[in-house]
Amino acid sequence: MCTKLISIMALCCIAGSAFASPHIQHWQAASGAQVYFVEDHDLPMLDVAVNFAAGAGYDVADKTGVAGLTQGLLDSGSQGLNEDDIARKMADIGAQMGGSFDADRAAITLRTLSSAAERDVALGIMASVLQQPLFPEAVLAREKNSMIASLKESATKPEYLAEKAFNKAVFGTHPYGWRIKVEDVEKIQRADLVNFYSAHYGAKNIVVALMGDVTRPQAEAIAQQLTASLPPGGASALLPPVNSKIVASEQRIAHPASQSHILIGAPGIARNDPDYIPLYVGNYILGGGGFVSRLMNEVREKRGMAYSVYSYFMPMQQLGAFEIGLQTKKEQADESLRLVRETLRTFVDKGVTEQELRAAKQNIIGGFPLRIDSNKKILDYLSMIGFYGLPLTYLDDFPKKVDKVTVKQINDAFKRRVNPDAMATVIVGAPEETTGATK
Amino acid sequence: MRFYSLLLCLLAIGVAQADVFEKDLSNGLKVIVKEDHRAPTVVQQIWYHVGSMDEKTGTTGVAHLLEHMMFKGTKSVPAGEFSRRIAAAGGRENAFTSYDYTAYFQQLHKSKLPLAMKLEADRMHNLDISDKEYNKEIKVVMEERRWRTDDEAHSLMDERLMATAFQEHPYHNPVIGWMNDLVNMTPADARDWYKAWYAPNNATLVIAGDVNAKEVFALAQRYYGGIPAVKLPQRKTLDEQPQLGIQRIVVKAPAELPYLIMAYHAPRLRDVEKDWKPYALSVLSGVLDGNESARLNKSLVREQQVAMDVGAGYDSTSRGPSMFTVEGTPAPGKTVAELEAAIRQQLQLLVRNGVSEEELKRVRAQVTAAEVYKLDSVFFQAMQIGQMESIGLTYQDIPLMLKKLQAVTAQQVQDVAREILQDDQLTVAILDPQPLAEKNKHAKGDATHVH
To answer: Among A370, A381, A402, A435, which would you mutate to test the B interface (most chain B Cβ atoms within 10 Å of its Cβ)?
Structure first.
């Protein structure tokens, strides 16, 4: 009886979960930068992110690592400030400057107290770091060494080896499939960073996200201050398209670890993809929904074969990966692989049930407020909305779109977009008797 | 501290106490409510005051295993159903085990709090550990151990370092348990553990978010109030004998880069008012590694370029003895011996000349700012409350702790450094990287016993 009562209550929640998402203000700064701002005075702090279309996907062949080093060296010296000045002055006011970097995007972030004494200093340093970077030779030499050592270290880790082989199999020669090469890093010169900066850090292609305790006029001034003297560059920032079709492949790579690391997948979806919602909701059922997904149920709950098993679509500017992953002890790697493939095949062939879809909607819609319950989370959404040109109503639209999706749309989208017969498979630390078929 | 599955640094502690309310139920359950109305969400955390340090030889890992079993069904909620109901309510949930405590949490829309409380209360006293579910879950835990520790060089180092530094105190044993103990564990071990420790009088309930404290107390009474208190096992006083000289260990594991950890025995916070060393040690770790411009990074990474990365750590808030650690990766072309010498030089410099007022001011600025930043995460604030309550302190101590931290003097930092950073209380662990092809298979022998 309790069970029924609870599920009725949960259903009611969907209808009643109208929840005001934050009011997003958007404008273009005089510099050309696109600005996204949420004004919120609850906490005396300000979060800022400046996003450039300058991720690893913008590296050129045989010069991998330039994009990452350019972003990484921004705070290592600017007009009038050396590396230590930047770190020390930020620390003196308790401000935190950081960054993020992926295949599409390079970002510099700042969290500071919003009182003028701290805020002005922090923004002044950030403005200098963004607009007058020096890329000092000595720091570059040190960071190149460090990057090379890290790459060699990564090459001993099964998870890195698996991702590297997987990306190559899924994306082929597209930059999404590249990983930084030691021999490329060794050749990088300061001029490479300076040129990359001029080409990819122009104000025309950037998105400034601001969240917190400043007024609209202050936000306007800050956005301009951070971007007014960026390089004039900023031509079209589109990456080449990803080839959506691959042929099935399987690579087995030897490794002494006790577990095999298994990845299965193919090119998936782009951020603006019309199939995004049905695939997102469907994937919740397949392997995205934590403890309640089909993969988790088959592999872990029923058989105890893995601690973690998941699937996801990584929506990128171009088609990002659809990926299933797990780790399991070597002796049962082949059995797990069969089970995962079978689960995926059944999912695509037979589709999801009404009951599964209802549970997925309950979780995604009912849990939506958790996605925007802090300044940090809202800042990340502002950056994403701006960077990928999503509508300002994105946060309001998302739960509504999820609510409307049907079993038929999900099953149709999976049949069109996920072909179990054309998946790349990588097994690192494969069972020894079967290792050796590495291509 | 790095050896805890959970990282909570004293430097980041501090809760706006005004919105915190507490009430003890008659069965001994302490309920603490932190109101925060910024978003219509709530987090429930239940903290059981039992962790891996309460385990006995031969059943290490049972605290963490029980945490897994808590999702495997009660008399009225079948296995897996807990997670399904929380998911259907739009919730997120998980749990974690440390040396000191075991905690469970759900984050949901505020309207779903009664559901979460009902489910959490149910598994506090109605858990049904069936042989069938146990036999599957113990395999999951072994996979977790392989993934987290056996195949992770740095985790292996941590594990062996703790086993060396602590010879008497149960921090000697890893939270996840030794593989041999997992292999030989039985469902009865899990049932015994549950019966002994899972009771309202051994727990703190923390609810934080867009709620009204009075209403939460009424809900807590309704769902948890009827659960009977249990006579808890006697807790013996546990301690570690003084170390009698420097200890050095080498861990061989597949890797490219060597690694160095230097760990000094150090006191934990017991008397919030009278103790001073734990505060001084926290500031010391801030001076060495509290920010990008702190001493270790500045001197060893940027200037001398003897380290690729380097850090210091100390956590004053634990049930058992603490450690002050310095660790890092040698820069390419440098050895661990060179890195150790460079670290020792920095520590000696500090012992000899102390720290500057400017450095102290910088650490204080970090503490002040961190207090504000922390308010952006309701979950984290609830964590601090729960952790303090679980280790024998209380959340009400936090403001005084902050005041004490801000009042640490340069002299105290120098004095505590001189006293603690001594070879006789030091354990040094070195990772000796092994090429992939020549990996000693014997090291993974554990796994072959598993069926």
So the answer is: A370
